[in-house]
Amino acid sequence: xxxxxxxxxxxxxxxxxxxxxxxxxxxxxxxxxxxxxxxxxxxxxxxxxxxxxxxxxxxxxxxxxxxxxxxxxxxxxxxxxxxxxxxxxxxxxxxxxxxxxxxxxxxxxxxxxxxxxxxxxxxxxxxxxxxxxxxxxxxxxxxxxxxxxxxxxxxxxxxxxxxxxxxxxxxxxxxxxxxxxxxxxxxxxxxxxxxxxxxx
Length: 200
Known about the structure:
Blueprint: H1 19-26, H2 38-45, H3 48-56, H4 71-77, H5 81-89, H6 105-112, H7 115-123, H8 139-146, H9 149-157, H10 172-178, H11 182-198
């Protein structure tokens, strides 16, 4: 049986999902690490009403695709703060990594500059030590490369290691300098000097 398509403009009360068709679409055997679930699309759209309907029908809030990408990753990437909160409250894994790079929901939120979502994830205890497994760059490297002073400040206040180096021995300050973000570079130099002298 062909899996029914769910259009993101449909609200939850328009769903007519029978127990057999929905069960076949959402069970682990039907999605064994291949493709994405309905919840991925709803997370991208921020459609909480429809997501609630899927959960009420027994769907999974946290089903990964073949790369480990989960609805929480989608919501964080697309800046859906309320959806992020909903998914976390519904049992989504906070620091689940995507293969092969190890990106988490927090990584995507930092990368895309979604500071409210970063705050939400940090409040829930998201891991600050996530790095790109290929180049070793961490969250502060990403914020520095974007010249995002506010994001960098939030990460520093949360306790991120400002002296951390990537696989080339480069710090976040180097990332800021390489992308000509001189104001952020100067801030990072001062913070690094303080941490080197007095500790975090």
